[in-house]
Design a protein that fits this description.
Length: 723
């Protein structure tokens, strides 16, 4: 039912998805969002970075210099445009710099860093100085020096003129790509935490997803801070700078803890080392900062050393795990992780190399540009790994549920026949098969389909699968069972080459796919069972539990045979093998369920007396045995009673009247195939019944009517019709 609803829902979802993509593309490329996404500057923006003069008269571009090149400071001058509009904004992006600005002889702006937890550094800062049309053509002077006491660094990254309303969009636009990747990392981190808390406690993830989620959130926030957008939007400088120096060290432990969770041999010492690396790093940083007054800007070797130590520890953990898996001959299953980790490591090393080579000169979006790419690749591999585990875990949970239900059926108090039918029905429903059946060795060189359950709409085949020859067919499967314990056929047509004999036997049974397993009792093959026409995905699921199913069916059949042997003398008819009159009296007095719907049948052989008189009692006995076998085949031997010489009674707890009527018709076909004749009285009671008198009376009347039709015009009720 759910699949039918999904069948109609999927096309609508696809249409909605296409509409969303079209809408996004239209808004992005055919509205004013186009200039924003494509990083197009507004018309009023004027690049003011070139043509600055130093104290010595040298003309420079601000990208090419910083204060440390000129000692402790540098003075830059340049003339403002003659057509300067009123309320024009002079926008400056500085990095660890003190700034004094004058226009003409008037001081208009000053900026200096203040000591803070991290040191005297201020990182990237955004300055907006408002100019008027009276400043047009005047000379502007910028005095630039470093905020650090050792006079290192101190530079301007960008200077431009624009309208005040354009300043923030220009800066945001330049960092949009890097910020988007940063938000994506944070999103994945939150997603991992959600998955962690959604996983049922009884099915704990083999991966420490909470640690991965925490590490990703910390790294994502650091990447976002590195774009300087939080500082731009909040105006906070020093609090964000503290986060800039502490978030990555804090991410070391959860990231290593996640790596440890991927391994099969989890050594406690690795967890302790992973914990102490960031603790010692942060402790050392703040100790040096407050004991010696060293700016954390100058502690890069210590920070990079800790990162390298964490990477070495991760490699040791992974190599140790690979050695453990190789010794124990188990796959590590970390192929995707190695790909993601390799990309992340290469990207991180590229960022470190860029920082080392460029120093204070930053790329658009910050230093961690390649780290973001590496994180996304790493995350995609980890998401795939988690989804693969999630899928396997869901399948494992489903298998456990199926196995538990099968064991419940096998251990129930019902008779063996009922147990087998219950298991077959359950398997058919759960694995979406058309039919489930059991074949048993008849000890006469043939096999017979003894149990079958069909879903509604499927065609029963049990009547056509009797007396299957052993030599030409079944021995083929027995040879294959010895190799793989079960046989899976996803497509019968592909199975045909090299298996023509088996194909010719399976094809008429309306079989497209099949999985089958052997029944083994005391080391001997006694039959097999199978599931017919199930989807390919469920063939794999069935293959996972075929060993258990073989054991369960074999045990139930063995239990059935033992019970039958014990009850044979007291409750079984010796000649036919069905239950006797004593069993019928016991059943009606103490065992019959009066609340459930059931079918009641009385059956009497036609022509038994004339056969006994003319051919002999042996042939008459064969007639009785053939009819008893037909009744047992349709209704189960436990439900058939021989109440007299040639009379039988059946109690059939069919689910509904239609099923009962089909079974009666099936009985007639079996009897006709044996060239026997019976008269039947069959009544179905939909509501159950405590008093059987009216049911038996109605059945007897039906029986008498059929008998009368058969012997119409005959004096001898027991004679057979003359030709």
């Amino acid at each position: 039912m759910n699949k039918e609803r999904d069948k109609f829902a999927v096309p609508y979802l696809i249409v909605i998805g296409i509409c969303m993509i079209v809408l996004f593309c239209f808004v992005s490329f055919f509205t004013d969002f186009r200039s924003f996404f494509l990083n197009e500057d507004p018309e009023g923006k004027i690049d003011f970075s070139q043509g600055w003069l130093t104290d010595t008269g040298e003309e420079i571009n601000i990208f090419d210099t910083d204060a440390s090149i000129y000692g402790d400071q540098i003075t830059l001058t340049k003339s403002l445009p003659n057509d300067l509009a009123d309320q024009t904004c002079l926008a400056i992006v500085s990095l660890n710099a003190k700034i004094d600005i004058t226009v003409g002889s008037k001081d208009i702006y000053q900026f200096d860093s203040v000591p803070n937890l991290i040191g005297s550094g201020s990182g990237v800062n955004y300055h907006t100085i408002y100019l008027s049309d009276e400043d047009a053509g005047k000379e502007i002077t910028i005095t630039l020096s470093s905020v650090f006491t050792n006079y290192t660094a101190g530079r301007l990254n960008e200077i431009f003129l624009c309208a005040p309303s354009d300043f923030v969009p220009i800066i945001v636009r330049s960092s949009l790509f890097a910020a988007s990747f940063s938000f994506l990392v944070i999103f994945f981190g939150i997603l991992m935490l959600i998955i962690h808390f959604l996983i049922p406690k009884e099915h704990t993830s083999p991966y420490h997803l909470a640690s991965l989620g925490n590490a990703l959130i910390l790294i994502g926030i650091w990447c976002l801070i590195d774009t300087e957008l939080p500082q731009l939007l909040t105006g906070c400088i020093y609090g964000i700078r503290v986060l800039d120096y502490t978030l990555l060290p804090l991410a070391i432990f959860p990231l290593l803890l996640f790596v440890i969770s991927l391994t099969q041999k989890r050594r406690p010492v690795y967890v302790q080392l992973a914990f102490w690396i960031p603790v010692l790093l942060l402790s050392s940083m703040f100790f040096v900062r407050f004991t010696f007054g060293t700016d954390m800007h100058d502690l890069s070797p210590l920070i990079y050393g800790a990162y390298a130590l964490a990477l070495i520890l991760a490699l040791i953990i992974l190599l140790d795990n690979e050695h453990y898996c190789r010794v124990n001959r188990t796959p590590s299953g970390l192929g995707l992780f190695y790909i993601g980790l390799g990309c992340l490591t290469v990207c991180a090393l590229l960022d470190i190399l860029i920082v080392t080579l460029k120093g204070e000169q930053r790329m658009p979006g910050g230093y961690g540009h390649f780290l973001r790419y590496g994180m996304i690749i790493f995350l995609l591999t980890m998401v795939w790994q988690v989804l693969r585990w999630w899928t396997d875990d869901r399948a494992s949970i489903e298998r456990e549920r199926v196995v538990n239900k099968i064991l419940q059926c096998a251990m129930g108090s019902q008779g063996a026949d009922t147990k087998i039918k219950s298991v077959l029905e359950y398997l058919c429903i759960q694995l979406h098969a058309d039919r489930a059946c059991v074949f048993e060795d008849q000890l006469d060189g043939t096999f017979a389909n003894t149990y079958e359950w069909c879903r509604p709409g499927a065609h029963p085949q049990i009547a056509n699968l009797q007396e299957v020859p052993y030599d030409s067919l079944i021995e083929i499967w027995y040879d294959e069972f010895k190799k793989d314990h079960h046989i899976a056929i996803e497509d019968l047509e592909k199975y045909r080459p090299g298996n023509e004999t088996m194909y010719n036997w399976l094809k008429p049974q309306d079989i497209q796919s099949l999985i089958t397993g052997p029944l083994v009792i005391e080391g001997k093959y006694v039959g097999f069972f199978g599931l017919v026409n199930l989807p390919a995905a469920f063939i794999k699921e069935a293959g996972e539990i075929m060993g258990l199913l073989s054991y369960v069916f074999a045990q139930i059949i063995s239990q059935r045979d033992e019970q039958n042997t014990l009850l044979k003398n007291s409750y079984s008819d010796e000649m036919t093998g069905v239950k006797n009159r004593r069993a019928l009296d016991e059943f009606e007095a103490n065992e019959r369920d009066t609340t459930k719907p059931f079918g009641y049948i009385v059956c009497d052989l036609n022509g038994l007396k004339i056969v006994n008189d003319t051919i002999g009692h042996n042939e008459g006995d064969n007639m009785i045995i053939d009819v008893a076998n037909a009744l047992a085949m349709v209704f189960g031997a436990q439900n058939v009673f021989r109440s007299g010489g040639d009379e039988f009674v059946v109690y059939d707890y069919a689910d509904n009247e239609t099923v009962f009527e089909n079974e009666v018709k099936q009985l007639h076909r079996y009897v006709d195939r044996k060239k026997r004749s019976v008269s039947i009285g069959a009544i179905y009671c939909k509501e159950g019944c405590a008093d059987m008198t009216p049911i038996k009376t109605a059945a007897a009347e039906q029986l008498y009517t059929e008998k009368k039709k058969f012997f119409n015009g005959r004096n001898d009720r027991r004679s057979v019709p003359r030709g």
